[in-house]
Every structure is written in structure tokens, then in C-alpha cells.
Specification:
The complex is a heterodimer. By secondary structure, chain A is an alpha+beta fold. Helix content of chain A is 40%, strand content 15%. Chain A has 23 helices and 17 strands. Chain B has a single domain, classed as Ubiquitin-like (UB roll). Chain B starts with a strand and ends in a 5-residue tail after the last strand. Chain B is globular and about 35 Å long. The chains are: A alpha+beta, B mainly beta. Chains A and B meet through α7, α8 and α17 of A and β3, β4 and β5 of B. The complex binds iron/sulfur cluster. The site of iron/sulfur cluster has 12 residues of chain A, from loops.
Chain lengths: 578, 74
């Protein structure tokens, strides 16, 4: 992966592509690549939906190689939801295909005049563009089905649904999985709206005729790749818990800990939690002939995903993730896995971030648009988004907009992005990450849940403010580094918990690229990425005064522990003092 | 004393999801786990009343104890 593909969507007579060497971005993948390019090249003051914004895709550094669980894809831009820098990532097949084609990044800049929608084909011969309005107004499922008829089953498809075409703040970008279903989403921050603003409906990545990127030191790589799989299998989380129950195993844990946001962050426990837990979900999937263990991409050892069937044994969607089951489930007072799976399917089809949409519906419930627990109502509201009715467009613009339109005080957003499935009052380290991450309300950017709740990598009492700033700081640095390798983030459990597996990851990178990285370089990389992101945000008008949780978290105690968020603003401002 | 004991994920296999157990006063969480044949090194999280606790903790009558293997997600 030594080249960058740059596409000017504004060019007269249709998009024009050029290829340049990776240059100063060598050794960066995923978030490191997208964030540094966006910080270097995008005017922080630009309108996110204008031609001045750029949409940057980057596979992981080892994507397309035989290293397991390495094929994620990241996308970066200025976010239409937060107004700051954004990186979102997904599994599926596209990252591996880009890696095999040798692209370290693909940059879309400018925007075409006129209303035509474009299809981009990237293959071993280069890149080509065609006007294709045949999928206009279609969801991701129908779009991919049509594209597969033309381009076949060997390609990876990166598409937007109706939400992206409408340029809504919750719009995602879908990637196809091994079964050619558009179930893996670069979800957060409205990245799909930016793709829509550039009039790109679909990117087809055809890896046929390519070979895996060759390591500089094949013998060392082979040895490290073997140790890597062994390390992933050895850890209880990546070796047993995630394969058997998926991410939704967390429902019962967070509910027991009293940190499961219920009824739009009003309470910390949900009476219906066990009905929608990972244990129940896995059993249901097996009973109905689906799968409780499934990889979203070729060569994943962890296989945290699954396949969800309906009562008749027919495919509905991939196994909904913990965040989705929570946002559409407990957060809305809904305890029915079939309804949640249907909502997940609709989100994937319309191309919407499941966290943003579940939280938005929760805010609408708080406003009295429909009552909490109203499953039929939730399905109807989400349907409005797909249809693009005025109400649907409001909801599809996210929780912040919806809260404003309906006059709601309790709106759980940071930098206008909806908070995920951990209440910051009962998981205070996570609250620090929510408040301060350059991404806005985001859980992956510094997953303090691991230390606060799961006791992976130490323990810091989740109910107290002490120690949370340091915890979040260290995790945000480590995560920015792991994100910049572009490995699936679930490798972080073994990588941060088993020193030899951390070393194996470094060995893999060194063997592939002929580098001599050491552990400290990784921390330095994390800091570099965070600094670039924060620099962009501050120039975009998102300074430290935006590094705050909504006030209600400091004022309204959360049952059952009756705690409020106790980390003081001046302590939050110390997170990035290193 | 009576305790409500909840088990999760793989710990349910061959055991139970939730049960009322009668135990001698002063029993530690560690010996509770031993009695359930849950290897101590496989335990990831112990909670009493929704708060994290250690193996040496002695629950009080009526407490709700939750025992999880090492888990992750996100
Ligand atoms: S661990 Fe899960 S999300 Fe990550 S690559 Fe494997 S199946 Fe996909």
C-alpha cells in the first residue's frame, strides 16, 4: 500500500483521478491516515456539505494481508453532525479489497455540478466513473442487489441509502459483508451525508486479479501472523466471550452495574434487559437457524458477529450490536428482539447510524411524540426517515436537532453527537471520554468501560470521579494508535491486556513495512493523531468549552446508585495535558 | 442467610441463570464461587448490589450477587 488515489469530483466533464505516492503519510492507516489528511487539507471553517470538504477512505495498514482481523476501513471528513473532525470505521470486505489494490487512501474532493448520481469503480486497472441514476432513492439492500447483477459477487460495495442522498446528519456509509449484504456501517457523524453531497451513490471495489500485499520480511511476517491468531484466541474476551455472545453480552453487565441508560438516560436499569441480552439473542439465533458466531470479513479470528433470522427462519439482519440493541431497545423501553432486529435492518437499509437513531427516537419519546415502549411507533418513526417526510428529516438529523425541535431538555449529546450505551454518571471514566473525545459523544475513542466495569486492564471505581481523567487520557492515546493501525478495535482487549500480543502487533507492522517501530512509537503516534484532530476542531470553532457533558448529568441523580457525574470541568481540561 | 445469585454468559452452562441460595453467614464470594464449581481464575467481574466486589467480600443476607466471566464488547 504505497499510493494515494485522489478524485476531483468537480472536474469538468466528470470526475478526474490522479495517483500520488503515499509520501509523508507512510506508516499510517485507518484513523491516523484519514485524520491527518483531513487536518492537513480540509478548511476547518468550510461547510461540511460543501465542495470544500473532503471524504477520505483509508484501509488498515495490514488490510488485505493474511493477518487476522486486520481488514477494517475508515472514513474521515469534517462532520456535518458535530462540525468537527470525524473518523468512522467499519468491517466488511471493502478494506481488504482496497489493501490488495495497493491504496493507502482514497480521497474524494470537490462536488459535481448537476443532480446526477455517480458510481465509482476501483479495480486492478485503476478507477473509472459513470453516471448511474438507476439506484436513486433506493436503500442499501436494493442498491447492492442491482450492483451485484452488473459487477458480480467478487466485489466489495460501499454505498449510501436514502439518508445519505438526503444529506441527513445521521447518515452512514454501508459496506458489504462476506454475504454481500450492506450490514457493516461507517456509522457515526453523518459521513453518509458527505458522500451524498459529493453525489457518490456507490463505490465498487473489485479486487480480482490482485494478490495480497507482500511483506518486506515474509518469514517474520508469517511467524508473527501465527502468534497473532494465537494471542487473539488466548484472551477470554476475543477468544470466547465475543465469538459466543457478540458485543451484546454487555447488556446484562451494564444493567447489573446500574449504568444501562434507560428511558432516554432517565434511569440506569431496564426491567426488560434479560429479554434482549446477548445470552437470549445468541440462543434465539441458534434456535431459528441463524448464526451466533460469524465474521464480518474474511479471515477474522474473533468473529463477534452473527446472523439474525425471524420466526419463520428467514434472514432479517446481521446480529444487532450491543449499541444498537440498547439504543433501539432499553433506551426506548422496548424489550423485543424482533422489533430491534427490524429497526436495525431499516437503519442499514436507509443508511443510518443506529446509535444516533435510537437515541433520537428516545428523545422523541421523551417529547411525547410516541410513548416509551411503543414498538409500532418506533418502527413508524424510523419509516418516516426512509420516506423523507418532514418529520423523518428532522429525526434523521439526529438527537440534537430533534431535541431542539420538540423542546426537550434531556438531550444526551456531546458536540451534537448522541451518546452510546453507557451512562456517564455510573461509568464516569466513559463520561470523560464522551466529553473530551475530538469525535464528540463516542464510546470507542477511549473505552473506559473496560477498566470501570469489565476489569480488563485494571480497575478504576466507575461511580467516583477519582482517576478517570488519567484513565481516559491513556485510553484515548492507546486507541488513537490502535485505530491508526486500522485493526478491528476488538483486538484492543488482547493487545492492551497481553504484552506479548501487543509486541506481536508491532512485529506484524515491522515485518510488513520493513520498519523498526517500538512500543513507545505507538504512544507517540496516538498523541500525534489526537493533537491533529484537536487542532482541526479548535480551528473549526470546537474549543475546550465544547468538551463538556450536558448539564443534566451533573444535576439529575441516576438510579439505582443515585450518582451524578462528578468530574469537574477544570479536570476535563487536563485530559490532553501530556 | 439467603442470597440471590445471578450467573451470566458461559457460567450459566450446566448451572442456572438466577437462584435463591441458602448460605452460612460470613461466606465469602470466593467460597460461593467454589461451591458453584466456578474456577476463580475464570471470574471476570463480581458485583454485589450492582457494585464491584472482591473474592474476599462477605455478602450480607438478602444481597444480590452477580458473577460474570471475563467479558468485553463495545
Ligand atoms: S471482531 Fe467482529 S467487527 Fe471485528 S472484524 Fe471480526 S467480526 Fe468484524
Amino acid at each position: 500500500m504505497d499510493k494515494i488515489l485522489r478524485v476531483d469530483m468537480s472536474a469538468k466533464g466528470g470526475p478526474k483521478a490522479s495517483v500520488e505516492p503515499v509520501g509523508k503519510y507512510v506508516g499510517l492507516g485507518g484513523r491516523g491516515m484519514t485524520s491527518l489528511i483531513v487536518a492537513d487539507e480540509v478548511d476547518p471553517a468550510c461547510h461540511p456539505l460543501s465542495a470544500a470538504n473532503k471524504l477520505v477512505f483509508a484501509p488498515g495498514l495490514l488490510a488485505g494481508t493474511s493477518a487476522s482481523t486486520s481488514g477494517r476501513i475508515s472514513v474521515g471528513c469534517k462532520s456535518p453532525l458535530t462540525g468537527g473532525i470525524k473518523e468512522a470505521n467499519a468491517g466488511g470486505q471493502a478494506g481488504m479489497a482496497l489493501g490488495r489494490l495497493g491504496y493507502a487512501a482514497v480521497i474524494f474532493e470537490g462536488a459535481p455540478a448537476g443532480d446526477d448520481l455517480w458510481k465509482v469503480l476501483i479495480d486492478k486497472n485503476g478507477v473509472s466513473f459513470s453516471v448511474d441514476n438507476s439506484c436513486r432513492g433506493l436503500g442499501n439492500y436494493d442498491t447492492v442487489e442491482k450492483l451485484v447483477k452488473v459487477h458480480g459477487e467478487k466485489c466489495a460495495y460501499v454505498t449510501i441509502g436514502q439518508a445519505g442522498e438526503m444529506k441527513l446528519g445521521a447518515a452512514s456509509i454501508a459496506c458489504t459483508d462476506r454475504e454481500l449484504r450492506p450490514t457493516r456501517h461507517m456509522g457515526r457523524g453523518g459521513v453518509g451525508a458527505v458522500m451524498g453531497s459529493k453525489k457518490i451513490k456507490a463505490i465498487v471495489v473489485d479486487e480480482s486479479g490482485t494478490t495480497p500485499p507482500q511483506p518486506r520480511d515474509p518469514a517474520r511476517f508469517k511467524e508473527a501472523a501465527k502468534a497473532w491468531v494465537e494471542g487473539l484466541k488466548r484472551h477470554a474476551v476475543s477468544g470466547q466471550g465475543l465469538p459466543a455472545f457478540g458485543t451484546n453480552v454487555l447488556t446484562n453487565v451494564l444493567n447489573e452495574a446500574g449504568g444501562y441508560p434507560t428511558f432516554n438516560f432517565k434511569e440506569g436499569r431496564f426491567a426488560g434487559a434479560s429479554k434482549i441480552s446477548g445470552e437470549t439473542q445468541a440462543q434465539l439465533e441458534i434456535d431459528r437457524g441463524g448464526l451466533a458466531t460469524h465474521g464480518c470479513q474474511r479471515g477474522c479470528t474473533i468473529q463477534c458477529s452473527g446472523i439474525f433470522h425471524d420466526k419463520e427462519g428467514k434472514y432479517v439482519t446481521k446480529q444487532p450490536e450491543y449499541e444498537t440493541v440498547w439504543s433501539h431497545g432499553g433506551n426506548c423501553g422496548i424489550d423485543d428482539l424482533d422489533v430491534i432486529a427490524q429497526l436495525d435492518r431499516m437503519d442499514d437499509d436507509f443508511g443510518l447510524d443506529t446509535i444516533e437513531m435510537g437515541v433520537t427516537i428516545g428523545v422523541a419519546m421523551e417529547a411525547g411524540v410516541i410513548p416509551f415502549g411503543d414498538a409500532a411507533g418506533a418502527l413508524r418513526l424510523l419509516g418516516e426517515v426512509g420516506k423523507g417526510t418532514p418529520l423523518g428529516r428532522i429525526l434523521g438529523s439526529g438527537a440534537g436537532v430533534t431535541g431542539k425541535v420538540f423542546g426537550v431538555e434531556r438531550v444526551p449529546v456531546v458536540k451534537n453527537q448522541a451518546l452510546p450505551a453507557y451512562d456517564p454518571r455510573a461509568v464516569q471514566g466513559q463520561g470523560v471520554t464522551y466529553a473530551t473525545s475530538p469525535m464528540g459523544g463516542d464510546h470507542t475513542a477511549g473505552y473506559a468501560v473496560a477498566t470501570n466495569i469489565l476489569k480488563v486492564g485494571g480497575f478504576v471505581d466507575p461511580l467516583k470521579p477519582e482517576g478517570q481523567v488519567e484513565l481516559s487520557r491513556n485510553l484515548q492515546i492507546a486507541t488513537a494508535a490502535v485505530d491508526s493501525t486500522g485493526m478491528c478495535l476488538f483486538v484492543a482487549f488482547p493487545v492492551l491486556d497481553q504484552p506479548d500480543t501487543f509486541q506481536t502487533l508491532i512485529d506484524l507492522l515491522n515485518a510488513q513495512y520493513g520498519l523498526s517501530l517500538v512500543g513507545d512509537d505507538v504512544a507517540a503516534l496516538g498523541k500525534k493523531v489526537l493533537s491533529a484532530e484537536r487542532g482541526f476542531n479548535s480551528r473549526a470553532g470546537l474549543g475546550v468549552e465544547q468538551d463538556r457533558l450536558p448539564r443534566f448529568f451533573e444535576q439529575q441523580p441516576l438510579a439505582p446508585h443515585n450518582v451524578v457525574f462528578g468530574v469537574k470541568p477544570e479536570e476535563l481540561d487536563r485530559v490532553f495535558n501530556w | 442467610m439467603k442470597l440471590t445469585v445471578k450467573l451470566f454468559a458461559t457460567f450459566r452452562q450446566g448451572r442456572f441463570a438466577e437462584a435463591e441460595l441458602e448460605l452460612a453467614e460470613g461466606t465469602t464470594l470466593g467460597s460461593l464461587a467454589d461451591g458453584l464449581r466456578i474456577p476463580r481464575e475464570e471470574i471476570g467481574i463480581l458485583m454485589v448490589g450492582g457494585r464491584h466486589a472482591e473474592l474476599a467480600h462477605r455478602p450480607a443476607p438478602g444481597d444480590v450477587v452477580a458473577i460474570f466471566p471475563l467479558l468485553g464488547g463495545g
